[in-house]
């Protein structure tokens, strides 16, 4: 079997390449250090690939695992989820109402503090 070497500096390996490398390690009883030198991949990465291979099967190495999954981030490919127009308008109105309420409470608090100061002076 021929060596399926990667161009120097290549840092992304597709699933087929990962499977072939792991199978070769098993078939030829290569050490992780030896395979690491030969392929230019860290032995830690090779160990991770092997763990995935044994725990989840060959198909699991074919999946792209880097970055956040769409399910975890709640978005699809970095796009904001589309809201219903009415929901968006309701949220904007609620934000405005809450900002007005905060402003009102700040002013009320200032008036109460001022009144307390006035009462302390007159006593």
UniProtKB/TrEMBL annotation:
Q: Which residues form the Insertion element IS150 protein InsJ-like helix-turn-helix domain?
A: 17-68
UniProt lists the family membership as follows: Belongs to the IS150/IS1296 orfA family.
- Report the protein name in the record: Helix-turn-helix domain-containing protein
């Amino acid at each position: 079997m021929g060596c399926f070497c990667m161009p120097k500096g290549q840092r992304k390996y597709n699933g087929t390449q990962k499977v072939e490398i792991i199978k070769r390690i098993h078939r030829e009883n290569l050490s992780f250090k030896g395979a690491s030198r030969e392929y230019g991949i860290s032995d830690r990465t090779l160990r991770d690939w092997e763990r995935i291979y044994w725990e989840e099967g060959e198909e699991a190495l074919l999946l792209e695992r880097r970055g956040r999954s769409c399910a975890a981030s709640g978005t699809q490919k970095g796009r904001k989820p589309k809201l219903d127009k009415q929901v968006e308008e309701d949220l904007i109105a609620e934000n405005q109402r809450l900002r007005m309420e905060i402003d009102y409470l700040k002013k009320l608090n200032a008036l109460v503090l001022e009144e307390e100061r006035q009462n302390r002076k007159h006593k």
